[in-house]
Design brief:
By secondary structure, the chain is of the alpha+beta class. The chain is 25% helix and 18% strand. It is globular, with a radius of gyration of 25 Å.
């Protein structure tokens, strides 16, 4: 139930198809999931042990007829490797400590934002993740404020645009790094000391993503959320800062016109040079003479020909275009810069949004849409094999772990479910991931609640840059007085070998007393986990051995900042199956739905109970919704 599969399920259900969506795990999202702290500890333990799962039904092969053949599926997930976790904080005993308000040490996996809030309302009082003086309006999630063109960081997604390509650099664009957040209540106080037992006790305040991403405000995922009206199931917060790591220091990157001219980091000449170049990037296609002859060179080489200073080249390459210094072509770099600039000012002061409660909310939103339109969900439900008809060569059914045959016309399978014999010709890449819990931000300012993205360039040429995303407690992903830091890069070695040097540059890992002033300035790491994740994006279907034409493979997450590849893949697969259907259209308004007269009365009570429901545990299957009844479209 990762992001591409969930989007396809929602699109199929919306177009009137009957959808069964099963997941062998007991939580939603697969490698796109978010966990509470105790949930993540359970996930770590599971992936460190890697126990083989035995067949629940050993006689399933007897269900295969002579005219059929079976394609066995993998019995265990091999997408996660080299999992290592470390506690750097005060390691007081946490053996008998439970999450506040939890009925058990391991809460239900995959709980959505609304479900977590409902659980917290029933729980014993806990220290709030927000200042006690903050008031909440009805229907607004904790920590959110209204979005406008000039204030607020949190936003709901609408189809209205506050900016356009022509105004992306205009005065109306929000200035980077200037937020309306209240001054920090603890800025004048010493940093509070957080112990490991506190992290465990407040574990339900954490929503830790397995894969860290942001949403471009004009990206494919935002447009799909608007088009399908799935955005109503989630809330978002603006990323407030774009940071750069240069000459051993973290500094803020000026992007908008006002931010550039207010910057104290740049000279007057640099400001004019930067504005001239960014203006050119917005419509670089109209001026091919500017880059003629540089198409075959890298973007870094092209920047040197523009007579930009080294600091400007660094900002553009690593913090605006966010591309590789050695592998990115000139045209790709110009396109990436243009995309960044076009996204400025639509919903906030940077091009990026982050979903409250974590990236794992997005797949669940599409699962909810699928369920509303009649999709059936079964967690902790593994599949033994695909059943293929020898004569036609098409897949006709699956056999699940209960020994049931389930027939269907189309089958969408996530890459990790395919066996080694099917993937012998596939060459996978790997992603190095690290998740840190720290006690302060990498760049402290008067505004405490900051969401920042930082690109750390490689020390050696040819090595990948590391993307760092830092989340504050108002994103509902960590407890108060802590920050959640995600590090991501394409793998060259194990995750710890790739990322620990960057962690040591930005943070203090010393558990004892610091003696150097420089160390005192660095945020202290309280807890960390490193792991490698398989990157199956970009694998062509013909690379898999013997898959029928009606079986489609979805990839897991990639290492990019955005989600465009997942949306493209989902739309491509859907259009191959149903070329005449619209991809995820908006649901009809309730007043536009015409019900059969004999169905309105008897089903009214059922609809009131099933409408807008979403599966929230491993034992639960959800189906139906207020649009699952028979209905006819009518023209106005």
């Amino acid at each position: 139930s990762g992001l591409p599969e969930s989007i396809i399920a929602a699109a199929c259900a919306r177009s009137g198809q009957r959808v069964l969506h099963v997941d062998s795990k007991n939580y939603y999202g697969g490698n796109w999931a978010s966990f509470s702290f105790s949930g993540l500890l359970a996930w770590i333990k599971e992936n460190q042990q890697k126990t083989d799962t035995s067949d629940d039904c050993e006689d399933w092969r007897k269900l295969i007829l002579d005219s059929e053949e079976a394609i066995s599926l993998s019995k265990k997930d091999k997408t996660i490797q080299h999992v290592e976790d470390f506690c750097y904080g005060d390691q007081d005993s946490a053996e008998d400590v439970e999450e506040a308000g939890a009925l058990s040490k391991l809460p239900v996996f995959g709980a959505s934002a609304a479900e977590r809030v409902a659980q917290e309302e029933k729980s014993p009082p806990m220290e709030s993740a927000l200042p006690e003086t903050e008031s909440l309006e009805p229907g607004r999630a904790a920590g959110t404020e209204p979005a406008s063109a000039t204030e607020g960081n949190d936003t709901g997604i609408t189809s209205e645009s506050d900016g356009s390509p022509s105004t992306a650099l205009g005065q109306s664009t929000l200035e980077l790094g200037k937020t309306e957040a209240a001054p920090s209540e603890t800025s004048a106080k010493e940093t509070k000391k957080i112990t490991y037992s506190q992290i465990v006790r407040e574990g339900r305040r954490f929503n830790i993503d397995l894969i860290s991403k942001l949403l471009y405000s004009r990206g494919l995922l935002i447009e799909l959320l608007i088009k399908s009206n799935v955005s109503r199931y989630a809330e978002f917060k603006n990323a407030t800062r774009i940071l750069a790591f240069r000459e051993g220091k973290v500094e803020q990157v000026p992007c908008s016109r006002a931010d550039v001219f207010n910057s104290k980091q740049l000279t007057v000449v640099e400001k004019r040079m930067l504005m001239k170049f960014l203006t050119f990037c917005l419509d670089y296609e109209q001026h091919p003479e500017e880059y003629q002859g540089s198409e075959s060179s890298t973007f870094a080489q092209f920047l040197r020909t523009r007579q930009l200073t080294p600091s400007l080249q660094h900002f553009i390459l690593h913090s605006i275009a966010m591309v590789s210094e050695t592998d990115c072509s000139t045209l790709d770099g110009l396109q990436a810069t243009k995309k960044f600039l076009q996204c400025l000012g639509r919903y906030g002061n940077t091009p990026f949004l982050f979903p409250l409660y974590g990236q794992g909310e997005i797949p669940q939103c599409f699962c909810r849409m699928c369920a509303v339109f009649g999709g059936i969900y079964c967690l902790r439900h593994s599949v033994q094999c695909l059943v293929v008809d020898k004569e036609s060569g098409r897949c006709k059914a699956i056999v699940d772990h209960f020994g049931q045959r389930i027939s269907a016309n189309y089958f969408i399978v996530e890459d990790s479910y395919l066996s080694e014999s099917t993937c012998t010709n596939v060459c996978y890449r790997q992603i190095s991931r690290a998740v840190l819990i720290t006690d302060q931000s990498v760049l402290n300012t008067d505004a405490e609640q900051q969401v920042s993205i930082l690109t750390v360039p490689p020390v050696d040429l040819g090595k990948p840059a590391v993307c760092v995303i830092e989340l504050c407690s108002s994103t509902m992903t960590c407890m108060k007085d802590t920050y959640l830091v995600h590090l991501t890069c394409p793998s060259t070695k194990t995750a710890r070998e790739d990322l620990e040097p960057v962690v040591q540059k930005l943070f203090n890992l010393n558990t004892g007393k610091e003696t150097e002033n420089e160390e005192l300035k660095k945020p202290r790491v309280l807890w960390a986990v490193y792991f490698n994740m398989r990157d199956s994006s970009g694998v062509e279907k013909n690379s898999y051995n013997g898959l029928p034409s009606n079986v489609y493979v979805c990839s897991g997450p990639d290492s990019a900042v955005g989600n465009d590849s997942a949306v493209k893949q989902a739309e491509t697969i859907f259009q191959e199956m149903f070329p005449t259907e619209d991809f995820c259209p908006a649901p009809p308004n309730p007043e536009d739905i015409i019900y059969d007269e004999d169905e309105i009365v008897p089903e009214e009570s059922e609809l009131s109970n099933s409408a807008e429901t979403k599966p929230d545990s491993a034992e639960e299957s959800s189906s139906g919704g207020d649009n699952a009844v028979k209905k006819e479209d009518h023209e106005e």
